[in-house]
From TrEMBL:
Signal peptide: none
Tagged with keyword Ligase: yes
Pfam family for this entry, one: QueC
Gene encoding the protein: queC
Residues noted as binding Zn(2+) in the record, renumbered to the chain: C202, C217, C220, C223
Superkingdom classification of source: Bacteria
UniProt keywords, alphabetically: ATP-binding, Ligase, Metal-binding, Nucleotide-binding, Queuosine biosynthesis, Zinc
Name this polypeptide is given: 7-cyano-7-deazaguanine synthase
The family this protein is said to belong to: Belongs to the QueC family.
Keyword Cell inner membrane among UniProt keywords: no
InterPro entries: QueC (IPR018317), Rossmann-like_a/b/a_fold (IPR014729)
An MF annotation (GO) of this entry: ligase activity
Length: 244
């Protein structure tokens, strides 16, 4: 990796899903240089990773002003996370509520590891802004998606790396309908359509049928939330239900 000279550069955690794709557009609208970072941790819906380059290419074609800002893409092998996680995101098991009260799609430590590695890469690249799609409105109760967690992590990273990183979470207080609306505000109906068709959310990795709200099985918690959000967006309503 080489170091960028951009003074207003951001690194976006980009999985290939709806939320991170919207965050990528948000960053491209604000920063001079925007790089992306993805993680392969053995997720059962790893088809999302195959959507990453397609969305990057599509957004560059559709929005020439953003194309010049879109920088390098980084992919990190975090298979160790999958190997130590016994969750419905990393094992072929039924999605349900665990004894802890959290859905068993919760991968302990995932966002903490993601942001720490992102900071290490950003440090070497000269990027000061880290952007993630964490959300405390539609988040299934995941503790590593909470605003307090991200604020505490920002402090820890800056102390540990003697730096001045800023962790941006533009979706933190938005529901899924609001996330669709944000995409429209950033890039009009064209960006909404790119998010609908080019991103992936389904926990089961189903990508055979294009629904009105995008690809997916339509039955897993992620699909239900995305569908409800899209329908509420079209109707001008709000959706605040968690997926489980």
């Amino acid at each position: 990796m080489t170091r960028t000279d951009a003074k207003t550069g951001a690194l976006v955690l980009f999985s290939g899903g709806q939320d991170s794709a919207t965050c990528l557009a948000w960053a491209l609208d604000r920063y001079d240089t925007v790089e992306t970072l993805g993680f392969d941790y053995g997720q059962r819906h790893r088809v999302e990773l195959a959507c990453r380059e397609g969305f990057r290419s599509a957004i560059a074609r559709a929005f020439p002003a953003w194309a010049g800002r879109l920088g390098e893409d980084h992919m990190v092998d975090l298979s160790v996370l999958g190997s130590i996680s016994d969750t419905a995101m990393t094992r072929e098991i039924e999605i349900e509520t665990a004894a802890s009260g959290l859905p068993n799609t919760f991968v302990p430590g995932r966002n903490l590891m993601f942001m720490t590695i992102a900071a290490a890469i950003a440090y070497r690249r000269g990027l000061k802004v880290l952007v993630g799609g964490m959300c405390e409105t539609d988040f299934s109760g995941y503790p590593d998606c909470r605003d307090d967690t991200m604020k505490a992590l920002q402090v820890a990273l800056n102390l540990g790396m003697d730096s001045r990183f800023v962790l941006e979470t533009p979706l933190m207080w938005l529901d899924k309908a609001d996330t669709w609306r944000l995409a429209e505000q950033l890039g009009g109906k064209e960006l909404v359509e790119l998010v609908r068709v080019e991103t992936h959310t389904c926990y089961l990795g189903e990508r055979a049928e294009l629904n009105a709200w995008g690809f997916g099985c339509g039955e897993c918690p992620a699909c239900k939330l995305r569908k409800r959000g899209y329908e509420a967006y079209l109707a001008g309503e709000k959706v605040t239900e968690a997926p489980l």
